[in-house]
Task: structure prediction
Amino acid sequence: MHTCISLLQRGDMVVGIDNLNDYYDVNLKHSRLDVIKQHRNFKNFHFSKIDIADRKAIQELFLKEKFDCVLNLAAQAGVRYSIKNPYSYIDSNINGFLNILEGCRTHKIKNLVYASSSSVYGSNTKTPFSEEDNVDHPISLYAATKKSNELMAHTYSHLYDIPTTGLRFFTVYGPWGRPDMALFLFTKAILDGKPINVYNNGEMQRDFTYIDDIVDGIIYCIDNPAKPTPSFTPKNPLPHISNVPFQVLNIGNNSPINLLEFIKKIEENLNCKANKIFMPLQDGDVLETFADINQLHKLSGYKPKTNINIGIKKFIEWYRNYYGINS
Result:
């Protein structure tokens, strides 16, 4: 939604698709669409209810729209849910992504930007996480599908000369965010007077990245397709497939925060204490995420502008307004 608004703001024509599934509150998804509909350039936006796993529908969409660029942010998200419902991750994140790649191949798309994830780093202990780090050991199926997306994109860049950019997002948060993310879950529970689950006794760190900073990086990559470069892992240069228009970039805040400190900042903004239930580390979770953003900075000058205090405040203001909570 935020990226669509930024593109419309500058006059781009945007086609948005979503299957509007019930993984979380469908009303929130419709409300996001309503926000887009209120934009002064709404005439430049077209929405279709399509599942990227629907091969025929995606083929027809590419044939009809003649895209200049494709941005694929569609995926079945969530680390813990991938343990409960693995097939939905294969349907959306593997089969669906293949349909996008095939559309790009068939219609000679000039640029593909897609969502990867910081989860590909698995239980890496070296910080900050760099694009040059080994990511061969994912610890959730969700992470495995995102690593697979990067490999699939490289293949299509190599075989068909399609510029592809994978963005490894680091814990995106902000207004209109997903209800299964920590900030949303904690805010709702605290305001409802319910306890919050704090995993690994709070001994975790996350590189929370505000949505506006994420959009800045996405827009840059839309406007600047990947250029032919050697394979992205210097430790395994693979000279026979070098000079491929492929890149994978971290996009994060470069400033991780301890989970208990994060909760404290939410409490301060809500003027309310949380009832914490300390829990063990969950399967698939990692202890820390920390983005090395040097590559994106060198390319674009990218530098996150929103610190965690401002970001949490803006989210809670949105939350209170959206759900009609005045105190």
Remarks:
- The first helix runs from residue 2 to 9.
- The first strand starts at residue 14 and ends at 18.
